[in-house]
Amino acid sequence: MKMSQLTCVLCLTALAAQAQDPNEIEQIRKQMKEATDAFQKAAEQFQKTTDALKKRLDRLQGTNTTAIPVPAETKEPPAQTEAGQGTQGAPPWSPSQPIRVAGNAQNYLNLSFDALFAAGWSTEHDVESLQLGGHDPKQRGFTVQNLEMTLEGQIDPYFRGQAAIVFQIDPNGETAVEAEEAYLETMSLPANLQLRAGQYLTEFGRLNPTHPHTWDFVDQPLVNGRFFGEDGLRNPGARLSWLVPTPFYSELFLSVQNSQGETASSFRSDHDGDLLFGRPATATQVKGLGDLLYAPRYAVSFDVNDENTIVLGASAALGPNSSGRNTDTQIAGGDLFYKWKPRTQSKGWPFLTWQTEGMYRRYEAGRFAGTVDNSAQPSEILRDWGIYSQVSYGFHHGWVGSLRGDFVTGERGVFDPDPDRDERWRISPALTYYPTEFSKVRLQYNVDHRREEGLDHSIWLQVEFLLGSHAAHKF
User: Fold this and answer.
1) Which end of the chain is more exposed for a tag (fewer CB within 10 A), N or C?
2) CA distance 253 to 193
3) 50 to each of 56, 64, 133, how far by Cα in Å?
4) Cα 408 versus chain centre, distance
5) CB neighbours of 310 closer than 8 A, spacing ≥ 6?
6) pLDDT tens for each residue of 145-158
């Protein structure tokens, strides 16, 4: 045997002996576990701060803002086009992303469609008087809650756009179409600034800026329905946000929007000619800066440790209302969101979340000379407040159990009893099953108590399907 061959044999023998060393094997396993834990931690941090990071990435790289998948452990070589050129700048589409209809990495259009249906029964035959949300179940039997088509994409290196077109079918079978949101956002402003302009949901609290398919329950909380109306607080306007340069997520928002219309219920809405707080509403148009709606918000998020995250927020909405010439409304709110996800989680399960929002409304009600019973209504200050708190526990892959409590009330006014301000509460347990990320089935039971009506019981079964995933939502 030649010397070189003998050397190779000795080297292989030594390597085999090292591989069989129990200490070495244990060390390798330990390193693999540490690497896996580090990867999972990085992936969770990546998903949690997607909304903040995408703004910086958009400004620096001009990339799209669709949901960004967690990086795989291994990557395939870039696909080749017919011309033999790599497409590394435009990753291939996956089922977890919206459907790209047209365009390229610099200018594109994504399309998705989400459908929500509910079926159920309630002891209250007039279900619409019980449910305050426009997307809540509205009748015994079946309800088409929300059919939403979302179009979003990058316009050019400076702007991206998004639109949500909603179709609804009311209890009478009439179909309505509305532009729930349609706005553009800047992608390259300096100093971590971003400007949004168009029709959009006002940045107030955690629930109001979201769409029904992202909710943890079949219906919206009572305080949101009472203060913001059945369709939430939204209107045409502009919003400036500043991502504060801190080690943790911290962002300031200021929205300036029109204050009139049915989507500004506590402000200058005419309420379809109905009385509000015993007074008729007088709708007027914007004449100056004082006629606009102003909504500041501050949100901050930080990690308590590797498994626990807290998000805190404070919001306000200030503007004129329709009960008199110089009458205003002020709404203030605070919100808290907590999430626990253990290091041992698999595909997002198990987890625990806790979300709470509290709101206070100060409504300056104008003087009205005569009412239905010919009694005068003096000017007065009406104060209302409400809160909801909900907990969701993902106890097994695809299964989530939730519980929500609601309470709203107000000081008694001259016009009393007032169904728009009556004290009421609701308890709602729910169980949700996600077969995949593109569908869900939810069963929810409501116990409602209204001061003048007493107890009511309702049970709802909700089904959702999604064609093409929506863009990433806020953490």
Assistant:
1) N
2) 10
3) 10, 12, 29
4) 22
5) 301, 302, 304, 336, 337, 338
6) 999 999 999 999 99
